[in-house]
Amino acid sequence: MQCWAKASAGVNWVVHSWGDTSGTWEAVVMDLDGGSSTTVSTGVQAIPGRSTRHGAFYQFTQQNLPACKPVLTPAAVIATFLLMGFIFIPVGLVTLRASYSVVEIVDRYDIDCVPEEFRNNKVPKPMRAPIYIYYQLDNYYQNHRRYVKSRSDLQLLHGLGYNDTSTCKPLESSDNLPIVPCGLIAWSLFNDTYQFIRGPSELKVNRKNIAWKSDRNHKFGKRVYPFNFQNGTLIGGGKLDQSIPLSDQEDLIVWMRTAALPSFRKLYGRIEEDLDVDDVIVVHLKNNYNTYSFGGKKKLVLSTSSWLGGKNDFLGVANLFVGTFCILISIIFLLLHVKNPSFLEDAESCYFLVSLIS
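Predicted structure:
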């Protein structure tokens, strides 16, 4: 190893140092002016092992690893924003078209049961099967902390074999007997019913496979049956057939998957027939579920679906907004570059010099 050192004014020294096999370091100090040399033995033991100054970890901690540092030129920035705009706008148009292709009929029926103008619904556009039937509840807070916690997932899976139902309070038992399923969520099961008639015939509603397959197979026991359910003095919602296991009672499974927002829809069933334009659909319903005590609203929804799902304009509008914003920014940058190119060039040169220094 060789280095320069300055001992005093006008005197320059060259220091040669090395280590022998025993690890002792020696240094030869040479006076460049007088030509004399001195050998100094330090006696300091060298640290065993090779130097790690060129290792990956050392370079990483010193931020010396090879890296790509792109220079954001005005042309690159403008082209990037234009490309983003040309990508987002077509995506937004495609998603909006998919949303508009969904035919949806929404009727509120909890005021005067069904208003006169909605008692005979005409199909506005052709509706291709399957046609999904939803019930919609507004101002219903299924995400309330006490409501969400009032259930026992292990009891839903194992039934009476699981005795710890403390999480189901205040509805874990009735008349000193356990309740299956326990808790406020099951107790408040939605129980309005719908019947659909077109002309002289009734439209069949398929209520199978409306719940998630994972819920049916892994969260609700196939040998767990309702027990002592809705037998108390205060009846909440619908009742369950005690001869059918919980894994097959899909209306309960759908209801037990609580919603995150106070306005939500849950799947009731499917109509497996096509509906044509101006078909008159007569709905016979039973308004059993009480939403009047807390100011809730109930709506019946008939909807088709597209490759993107149900009717939802948010995704398309968001893509159009981002694309339009990107194109607007690119136009502003282009005008600034044309009006004052020297400013951007100076900024680019400054960035290049900073990169060289660092």
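Summary: Residues 1-50 have pLDDT under 50 and may be disordered.
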